[in-house]
């Protein structure tokens, strides 16, 4: 089986029908492309890159090199960040404060691919590049650029900049597991409005905007992508809090997932002067097969049962989302789904951590049919738990 989930940020998304329809359609487009690639056997990193590229080009996101919703720096320039993590190899590709590259995730993915090759001079290829160095590398790799002389910055983005306005905290991201069980995560953002030139947010920092690890290399596999107030995400190590809880052996039922998410957000708040992190996370959690770590005798016993064979062949996989903001844009597509599902999930309460869990397995096909949208399993008051 395979699965892909995407987000278009945690913040305050417009509630009118037209804006909601555009956002959900953009997420479905990203999921359709990634799902098509995964169905044909593409790797998790290829699918994650493709999904994020679609979201970078979408008109409703603060990602990519142009568009009505991108944020500009203090000087009126678009600078973007992007990163990708391969849970199979542990490889990372990151770019930050990049100007003019149409799809920064493509440059980050190129750095990830380059990290697996050796240079003729024996030097280690870079996994992180920022600013002018990243732009120079993009030109060397023939990555596509935007010519702002012929395609000026979108008028809506310029008007928003002039009025010193910002929309939602719109980092975009994708988390993927491919047919081989390999995990990947990717993130991209144009950053906060009126940011200092050269500022790099979590989407451009190694393992700050996204992380991934395979279930074959630890008791549980995971892919996480973060979104929200970047400085808080980096200061608190939010994704590292999640890694610490889900990398070790732990049950992947809804109640345990909710408990660990709540504890991770509370631990992050403790590092943020007891203020809850403003933002959210999207994750894929994957347990190893039931035969993982079992004795030879136990494996023989499992092999004698056709039911056990199915369980061993199909590890439990869950899509997870949690956010403390008024809304978060989420999309999910699993190999058993007839079509991608996308929605702007909204919370009616302030300073509350909302957690959603959705099983994504062949044996859960009937349950998936009954649950066309993500379902909230817990709402936690962060003012009381932080």
From TrEMBL:
<dbReference type="Pfam" id="PF01112">
    <property type="entry name" value="Asparaginase_2"/>
</dbReference>
<protein>
    <recommendedName>
        <fullName>Taspase, threonine aspartase, 1</fullName>
    </recommendedName>
</protein>
<dbReference type="InterPro" id="IPR000246">
    <property type="entry name" value="Peptidase_T2"/>
</dbReference>
<dbReference type="GO" id="GO:0004298">
    <property type="term" value="F:threonine-type endopeptidase activity"/>
</dbReference>
<dbReference type="InterPro" id="IPR037464">
    <property type="entry name" value="Taspase1"/>
</dbReference>
<feature type="active site" description="Nucleophile">
    <location>
        <position position="171"/>
    </location>
</feature>
<dbReference type="GO" id="GO:0051604">
    <property type="term" value="P:protein maturation"/>
</dbReference>
<dbReference type="InterPro" id="IPR029055">
    <property type="entry name" value="Ntn_hydrolases_N"/>
</dbReference>
<feature type="region of interest" description="Disordered">
    <location>
        <begin position="286"/>
        <end position="310"/>
    </location>
</feature>
<dbReference type="GO" id="GO:0005737">
    <property type="term" value="C:cytoplasm"/>
</dbReference>
<feature type="site" description="Cleavage; by autolysis">
    <location>
        <begin position="170"/>
        <end position="171"/>
    </location>
</feature>
């Amino acid at each position: 089986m395979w699965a892909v989930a995407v987000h278009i940020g945690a913040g305050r998304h417009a509630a009118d029908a037209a804006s909601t329809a555009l956002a959900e359609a953009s997420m479905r487009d990203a999921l359709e492309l990634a799902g098509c690639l995964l169905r044909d056997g593409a790797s998790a990193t290829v699918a994650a890159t493709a999904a994020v590229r679609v979201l970078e080009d979408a008109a409703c996101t603060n990602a990519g090199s142009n568009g009505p919703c991108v944020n500009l720096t203090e000087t009126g320039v678009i600078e973007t960040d992007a990163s990708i993590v391969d849970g199979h190899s542990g490889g990372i590709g990151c770019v930050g404060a990049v100007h003019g590259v149409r799809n920064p995730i493509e440059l980050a993915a190129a750095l990830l691919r380059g990290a697996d090759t050796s240079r003729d001079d024996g030097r280690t290829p870079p996994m992180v590049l920022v600013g002018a160095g990243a732009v120079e590398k993009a030109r060397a790799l023939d990555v596509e650029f935007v010519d702002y002389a012929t395609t000026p910055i979108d008028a809506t983005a310029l008007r928003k900049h002039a009025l010193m306005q910002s929309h939602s905290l719109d980092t975009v991201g994708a988390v993927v597991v491919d047919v081989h069980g390999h995990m990947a995560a990717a993130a991209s953002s144009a950053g906060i409005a009126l940011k200092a030139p050269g500022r790099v947010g979590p989407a451009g920092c190694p393992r700050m905007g996204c992380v991934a690890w395979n279930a074959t290399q630890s008791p549980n596999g995971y892919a996480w992508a973060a979104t929200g107030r970047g400085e808080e995400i980096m200061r608190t190590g939010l994704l590292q809090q999640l890694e610490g809880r889900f990398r070790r052996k732990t049950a992947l039922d809804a109640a345990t997932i909710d408990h660990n998410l709540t504890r991770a957000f509370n631990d992050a708040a403790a590092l943020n002067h007891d203020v809850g992190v403003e933002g959210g996370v999207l994750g894929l959690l994957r347990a190893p097969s039931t035969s993982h770590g079992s004795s030879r005798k136990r494996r023989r016993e499992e092999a004698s049962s056709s039911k056990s064979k199915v369980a061993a062949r199909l590890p439990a996989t869950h899509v997870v989302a949690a956010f403390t903001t008024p809304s978060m844009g989420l999309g999910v597509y699993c190999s058993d789904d007839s079509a991608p599902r996308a929605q702007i999930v909204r919370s009616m309460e302030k300073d509350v951590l909302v957690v959603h869990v959705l099983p994504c397995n062949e044996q859960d096909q009937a349950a998936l049919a009954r649950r066309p949208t993500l379902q909230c399993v817990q709402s936690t008051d962060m003012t009381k738990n932080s």
